[in-house]
Amino acid sequence: MTDTTFRTAAKAQEVTPGQPLVPVAITVNDRAATREAIIRKVRLLGHQFVERSQWGAHKSKGPLSDDWDYSMIALHHAGRSYVCGSGIEQMLETQKNQQSDKFDDIGYHFGIDCSGTVYEGRDIRFKGSSVHLYNTGVIGVVLLNNLTTAKEGNDLIGFWRETLETFGINTTNKIPTSQLDAAINLITALKSVFVIKHFGGHREFPNQAAEGKICPGNIGMKLVKNIRSKTLLLAPPIS
Amino acid sequence: MKKTLIILVLISISHLYVGYYETRWAEDNKIVFFIKKAPTFQVKFENIFASDSDDRPLTDLIMEEIAIIRNYCKYRLGIETWLQTQEELEACKMR
After folding, report:
1. N or C end: fewer C-beta atoms under 10 angstroms in chain A?
2. What is the domain-level CATH number for residue A52?
3. Chain A residue with the nearest C-alpha to that of B26
4. B65-74: per-residue pLDDT in tens?
């Protein structure tokens, strides 16, 4: 897969003619190679991939928990304050907000901007922070966009947006084709290295809607259902 | 004068009995208001459980976090605790 040299502590054994070889078990830490395989696959599928160091990500504030054997993908939108813009700036802004008082690092594993560029968020070797009490085995992907409709949220922002829409001012975004394609191709890349079974919007995961989550918004949920039908992935488990 | 006095009393009561915290979700955060279970002039609270991170066990919490939880637990839920056991911590996660 790579030119990397692997080291082993296994002892060499003399091969004696006529004597059977004793198998030597070697454990290889292939997680870094898997990360690299995801990056290469995304690029192969025609998208720019920006690693953490390339967008200037800050180091984690504290130790992160390991996670692996991912079987689910959670799709997020970035929030109601976002619109299409510079992906690097949006990743930095998201990390800054999430590190300020919430998480040790950006909570999502990947981000996708409106031009279809894929950004590495939290290193895939670490557990994400994007689905409350349900992060184990879940890869968090955020679309750097606002995918809610005006009526969502039941708050002042929602009221203001609905008022604007009554005057004919559209406040609901569409998902650019390049962002949609990148989401599907990122899922393809992830499926090539993990046994992914479930794919869902943030609020579909257990107990999230009950906590008042609206992510990824009604527009985002249409995309989720569309992607599920294309990829034959299942909705998130109910518990 | 009487109206002003009534307004002042109402403001004082609301200051003593209404608190709020901001959620710490990954996105679309909001402010949650609540009635305090005990009077205090503290208005802004922190609920570190309103987060999209997985909760950490009591043994992994630092003293500062324990103090924040104790304060939230007392005024939001009316539970005064020293947080010496995981069960006591779980009780403070109720909404």
Report:
1. C
2. 3.40.80.10
3. A130
4. 999 999 999 9
A49 CB-near residues (< 8 Å, 6+ apart)? A39, A42, A43, A117, A118, A119, A120
Question: Which residues, listed in sequence order, are joined to residue A141 by a DSSP beta bridge?
Answer: A75, A110
Nearest to B27 among A78, A133, A211 (CB): A78
ipTM at complex level: 0.85
Nearest residue of chain A to residue B54 (CA atoms): A133
Domain assignment of residue A161, yes or no = yes
Which residue in the block uniquely carries the two structure tokens 């030597």? A24
CA torsion through residues A234, A232, A37, A55, sign: negative
For residue A115, being part of any structural domain is answered with: yes
Helix spans in chain B (H): 2-17, 63-72, 86-91
Rounded to a whole number of angstroms, the distance from the CA of A133 to the nearest CA of chain B is 4
Residue B91 tokens, joined: 């009780």
Q: How far is CA B58 from CA A110, B52, B65, B85, in A?
A: 30, 18, 10, 7
Strands B18-22 and A198-201: unpaired
Which tokens in the block code for residue A37?
């395989």
Number of domains in chain A: 1
Q: Does A131 sit within 8 Å of B27, measured CB to CB? A: no
Range of the domain at B48: 2-91
Yes or no, beta carbons of B26 and A107 under 8 Å apart: yes
**Does a structural domain hold residue A64?**
yes
Domain assignment of residue A81, given as a range: 31-231
Phi, psi of A215, deg, nearest 5? -60, 140
| Total structural domains within chain B | 1
Q: What is the pLDDT of residues A58-97, one digit of tens each?
A: 999 989 999 999 999 999 999 999 999 999 999 999 999 9
Asked if residues A144 and A85 have their Cβ atoms less than 8 Å apart, the reply is yes
In angstroms, the first-to-last Cα distance of chain B is: 41
Q: Which H or E run contains A62?
A: none
Confidence of residue A4 (pLDDT cuts 50, 70, 90): low
